[in-house]
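Q: Give me the 3D complex with alpha-L-arabinofuranose.
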Amino acid sequence: MIAIQPMKTIVSLLAAGCLSTGQLLAQTNPVFTVNAAQIKTPVQKTMWGIFFEDINFGADGGIYAELVKNRSFEFAAPLMGWKELRQNNANGSILINNRGEQLNNPRFARFTVRSAAGYGISNEGFRGMGIKQGEGYDFSLQARVVEGNVTLRVELVNAANEKIASTSLPLSGKDWKKYTGTLTASATEAKAKLNIWFEGTGIIDADIISLFPQKTWKNRPGGLRADLVQLLADMKPGFLRFPGGCIVEGRELATRYQWKKTIGAVDDREVIVNRWNTEFRHKLTPDYFQSFGLGFYEYFLLSEDIGAEPLPILNCGMACQFNSSEVVPAEELDPYIQDALDLIEFANGTTDSKWGKVRAAMGHPAPFNLKLMGVGNEQWGEQYVERYKLFAKAIKAKYPEVKLVSSLGPNPNGELFDYLDPVLRGLKADILDEHYYRAPDWFLNQAKRYDNYDRNGPKIFAGEYAAQSKAIASAENSNNWQCALSEAAFMTGLERNADVVHMASYAPLFAHAEGWQWTPDLIWFNNLQSYGTPNYYVQKMYSANRGTHVVSTTLNNETAAGQIGLYANAVIDTVSKEVIVKIVNTSATPQTSEVVINGVKKLDKSAAIEVLKSGDLQLANTFARPAGISPQQQTIALKGKKLPVTLAPYSFQVIRVKML
Ligand code: AHR
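A: Here is the predicted complex, encoded as structure tokens.
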């Protein structure tokens, strides 16, 4: 319990210089004063968003619901993920054929089957296939019969090789055709495999062998994993940044992300290596490739589905500076710039424009209303500035309404940052992308980072951030409560400075429990389950309680930014007519406190409070305890304009009060 001193004693101790303000706070109950009539700044609709990158099996093996790995035999090792099946010495063989480099996906598999039964192939999926009892799965393949008479027996088997679904597909005709069938699972299995047995004899060519759950997000055939998209939708994100991240850059330019290669018919999209494949020695994933089944059209659609502004980030003629540092000479940058201009037309152009027509043909005649675009990911140095200027000049000349995001490099301070920041400000850049992967303490100490930023300069996009419990990108990092709490504290400062900070997103977003390369991550999943980390709930609580305007908030008459471990900020929502107060207690002690809400004629009698807390800073959510740290709801009665609240140790709460 905190000992309450008589006010006279406190005043005399202060006067004698025996007490600092912090000590004074420790002696008295902290009082948060919100003045809902004192509006500081609007909060942008884009304030809290999502950073998506195909890292950690985020797309292939993750949100893109395809269950077959290496469906078109285009991985560097063409049979990676596949295995021949042979019973009773059955006579059969497989040969990978290549139709030539002019095709995007030139390979197919030729099966020569000489035994009437007992020969087949099996796909292992992405660390197995997640199959659910009673649910339907769409199987398909492209095939032609070169000779003979063959029927496919398609089966799903569990980890013990027991059949849990099966269907038959007779093949016919010498021309390539798409064959489809449905498998209905009799059991749930996280490590299922797809077996295809050849019945009869002959020679069969096959390609694009695919299996999708029927239950995808919005039940779209060949779509996205519903549970993962739902977690994103629940965040009510203001924007969706895609496709990354370093994946935009590629380790070298040849493997950079090229949006035009990711649209059109899914089967024709060129498969390339994923740059995270062998990036970290401690976490090699040599079977990580990009099928681009989730391509730019699908990213735009996803943004629309979840109500987020699309924010594509484009390669600016520079490969990853942590890897090859390969660049395109500035004089040869035109095709890269043209890609950016064409993307705006693809997203926004009329259906009779070249690229608008492509969008319409894919099923979306209405524009996607692209307003934001990133030039380069995490670039730095003079080379970046030179290229950024060329992009900005061309894009602004044709599409002055599109706001450009420019990179401030990989660090929030230091040489690279100190060079870029003034240069880009001098160029009157629209939005600067700051990245910070730092220790929890850094986040606590930086809660006032933006208080003194230039109010008239470029806006800030806190584009990638996450507290690192051990060290940056260490395999031992944990999504523990200490990290999430420090982010919550720091975010009060982002929100307080919403006139400068227009966007923020945690990174990376997804991680497959057996296929990850980088940790910490916002959402973890395996083949059947997914859960939000404490960091996820922090993001969600901010985003779902964004409000419309920041209002004056103090803690005993000062900015609430760490005194006795407390951080706070308040917004109002002029649409729902609510005052929303966010308070973080990073101290180990409960704090008896009061929130006074001024500037409102009448308040509701009670407040709805959502609390995220744990006494154990090392605690993280797990598959066994997915909601271990998750928001708890409570209601507290107001006394007039005062709300008595007890701030639990290590807690983050969001308080909502109706303005009547
Ligand atoms: O979020 C993981 C990586 O961190 C991103 O790809 C990159 O932009 C940053 O270095």
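A quick observation: The domain at 50-65+231-507 is CATH 3.20.20.80 (TIM Barrel).
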